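Course assignment 3, question 2. Fill in each field.
Student: A.L.
Task: Predict the tertiary structure for the chain below.
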Amino acid sequence: MKKAFHNRIKKFQITREQWGILSLLYDHKSMNQKSLAQVYNRDPAALAKTLDRMERNNLIKRLRDEHDKRAYQIHLTDKGIRIRQQIEPLAKESISEAFSNFTGEELETLKTLLLKLAD
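Answer field:
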């Protein structure tokens, strides 16, 4: 599944990790780096390198946080929004293919187990 999705998005010159960040920011409008690192379960310093690359590629922009002048809010650029919107159908297609061999009952069982695991 990872390889198939990677092959679908490589023409956009972003990684799966960057796709995840684009999606989070698209859904949340903006986040600070600390929150992104927590949600993505990454070390903030390691995430900073990824964000630096994304900023150089004009996918995100960092703006000073109005409430905490030491922090930055990470926002998508217009380019980041466009790429996220273009990749979303490819992501859905990859997910559909990955689960195509499951029955409806198996999918419900998997969903139940994953929700239980998340608690």
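Instructor remarks: The radius of gyration is 16 Å. The mean pLDDT is 89.
Grade: pending
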